Every structure is written in C-alpha cells, then in structure tokens.
Amino acid sequence: MSLPTRAIAQDALHDAPAGNAEGAAAASPGAADRNVEVIPNTRSLGFLLQDVARLMRVSFGQAVNDAGLELTTGEARALVHAVAAAGARQTEIAERMGVEPMTLCGYVDRLESRGLVERQPHPADKRAKKIVPTETAGEAIDTIMPLTRKVIADAMEGLPDSDIQAFRRVLQHMHDHLADGRRNG
C-alpha cells in the first residue's frame, strides 16, 4: 500500500512553486490517477478572493449586530440590493446576491414584516413580484452604508491609495470580464 503524494493545488494564475515536482504533478491532468493528494493552495488568487469575501461578510455581520439593527447579515445585504435594484424581481436580486431564490424569499419575508420592503406585482410578468423598498428602508440604509464603508476601510488599512485604486481596477476588470462571459456564453 502506497501513501499518496502530497501536492499543493495550483490555480490558473500561478505556476507550480520552483523545484516542486509534486506541485506540477498535481496541476497536471491525471494527477489523481497517480495517487496524489491535492492540498488547497491557500495563497492562490481564487482562495484569497473567496476568503477575503467571507471575512468581510463576517465583519459586516458583526457591525450590523453591534449597530442594533435587528437584521441578519443576509437581511441587511438583501435590503441593500433591494434598494440598489429598486423594483427588481426577487430572482434578479437573488442572482445579484449569489443566493438561492428561496433563501432570498425568507430574507424578503422578514424585511417585509418589518416594513422595509414591499412585494408588488411585476407589470410585465403576472407571476413575478418586484421588490420595492419603503421609505422606512432609508433609515436602515443610512446606518448600513457607513458600516460597509468602515469594513472596507478596515480591510484596506495601511495600503497606499495607488494600491487601492489598482486593486479596484483589477476587480472591476475581473467583474466585467466574468459578467460579459455569462451574458455571451
């Protein structure tokens, strides 16, 4: 019985570490057939993007809780998206948030019960409902938006403005490229 060879998984934006044949084997087709155990590369761009997003959601959730808004992180995010896309269908907001429509439905139910949004008939589709923020939503948004800016500022603390602007351009490029690919593919 042979033990699997350990290898660090590589993403498409990084070569295998110099002199690391195991890393190259893991990145090559058929690595799994050669009994190679693939260890996630926690320094890859993909991993870092996902983990930073997770950490920012955790920080945002704590900030919302500390502010006493009596909203979950998901509800606060749903409200922000509902305001940004006023009059959008639930399915569109769910897609923007990256959650399942049924998950968003629960958020909207609770936001509606608090008087922050209303479901209204969609004029072009009788089966669909559009989500419309109420005037009361403005007060919650006035609290939520400074919290989001603080979470981002805390994450960027210590970076020069030039790095922040370059990071923003890279993220915008990635966003646009991926969004265009979804629309065209």
UniProtKB/TrEMBL annotation:
Highest taxon listed in the record's lineage: Bacteria
Gene3D superfamilies, per the entry: Winged helix-like DNA-binding domain superfamily/Winged helix DNA-binding domain
Keyword tRNA processing: no
Pfam families from the UniProt entry: MarR
InterPro entries: HTH_MarR-typ, MarR/SlyA-like, Tscrpt_reg_MarR-type_CS, WH-like_DNA-bd_sf, WH_DNA-bd_sf
GO molecular function, one term: DNA binding
UniProt record, GO biological process: response to stress
Keyword DNA-binding tagged: yes
Keyword vocabulary terms for this entry: DNA-binding, Transcription, Transcription regulation
Sequence ranges assigned to domain HTH marR-type in this UniProt record: 42-176
Protein name in UniProt: Transcriptional regulator, MarR family
Species per Swiss-Prot/TrEMBL record: Albimonas pacifica
